[in-house]
Amino acid sequence: MLATIKNRRELEANRLNVTPDVAELLFTTDDKKLYVGDGTTAGGILISDNAFITEDMTLNVPAEYADINEALDFLSAFRIKDNAIVTIQVADGTYTYTEEIVINHPDSANLKIIGNETNPTACTIWNPVSNNVISINKRELGYISGFKILGHNDEVNYPLNGQTVYRRGLMVSNNSGVVAGKLEAHNCFRGIEVSNISQLTINSYTASYNSESGLLTDMGSLSQISGSCSITSNSIGLFANGNSVIIANKSSMITQSNTTYGVYCINQSEVFIDHATATGNTTKDLYAANSGFIEAVGTTYSTLSPAINTQGNHLGYIRN
């Protein structure tokens, strides 16, 4: 059963000035406690310092919560149990953030964050100042989909003062795991970074104009793209480093017109892009070095190093 919670948010100092209606929830944003109203008790009745969600529910942005961070702040008062799923449903619009969206709920494996899965460009998340737009650290995220993530700087309102911000669109790090549907990431340093023994499974991904790479998979991590992918006009398209693996064996996988490499695989990493398209990349379409391995069976490409089925660049190898 889906439930929409009617709730109120107050500071603890203001709580006793409010009398919640019957079954209305009151959440104190500073000490993160939850109260329920009976229509007569000022401040409501304390439910628990650690209340539980036991049924599927939806938190609507911006109808009930101004943005994703406000919904996450409310959710921090609960534990999610009994296989319940909490969905943060974000309506179309452009949402500007000056703080990261940090997924750190202990039960985030039971959390879904969904925008417009048909047209992610209609649901834009833009952060011009933080190191990451969205970050997941030491957690699992059940599902995220339907967002266009932007990281470009507005130099009028957010001047850099000459300091470079290495902004990631989606940062998955430190033994984290994320399942994603359809995402876009543009105008960041790295569109998506998966690092430090983490894993990303994504169905559809579009990335462009990221100053280092569209997708970096680093330090013993795994990225799997199961559906369509268009990575164009970045510096590097797909970047695998440090004993990491990228799997994108789809004819709908495109890494094209990047200003250096379409696929850059180094330091004992592996990239599998069978039947994909890697063309028009300025330096090389495919590059493997330092025991990096690229499998490109049936893949369309023009330039590569080392030569096909030949070791080079310190034991780099590309097979077709």
Can you walk through the features of this model?
The chain is mainly beta and 320 residues long. The chain has two domains: 1-49, Seminal Fluid Protein  PDC-109 (Domain B) (Ribbon); 59-319, Single-stranded right-handed beta-helix, Pectin lyase-like (Pectate Lyase C-like). The chain has two helices and 33 strands. The chain has helices at 12-15, 68-75, and strands spanning 7-10, 25-28, 34-36, 45-48, 51-53, 57-61, 78-80, 86-90, 93-96, 101-103, 111-114, 123-126, 132-137, 140-145, 147-150, 168-173, 177-186, 190-195, 199-208, 213-218, 222-225, 229-232, 236-241, 245-247, 253-256, 261-266, 270-272, 277-278, 284-289, 293-295, 300-301, 304-305, 317-319. The chain has a 16-stranded parallel beta sheet that branches. A nine-stranded parallel beta sheet has the order 10-13-16-18-20-23-26-29-32. Strands 1-2-3-4 form a four-stranded mixed beta sheet. A hairpin with an 8-residue loop joins β3 (34-36) and β4 (45-48). It is elongated.
Low-pLDDT ranges: none
The name of the CATH architecture of the largest domain is 3 Solenoid
Question: Looking at this structure, what is the CATH superfamily of the largest domain?
Answer: Single-stranded right-handed beta-helix, Pectin lyase-like
Shape: elongated
Rounded radius of gyration (Å):
22 Å
Q: Characterize the largest beta sheet: strand count, sense, and whether it forms a barrel.
A: 16 strands, parallel
Which topology of the largest domain does CATH recognise? Pectate Lyase C-like
β-sheet strand percentage: over 45%
Q: What's the total number of strands?
A: 33
What is the residue-averaged pLDDT?
92
Q: What is the number of helical segments per DSSP (H or I, 4+ residues)? A: 2
Number of domains: 2
| CATH secondary-structure class of the largest domain | Mainly Beta
| Gap between N and C termini | 51 Å
Tell me roughly what share of residues is in helical segments: under 10%
Global structural class: mainly beta
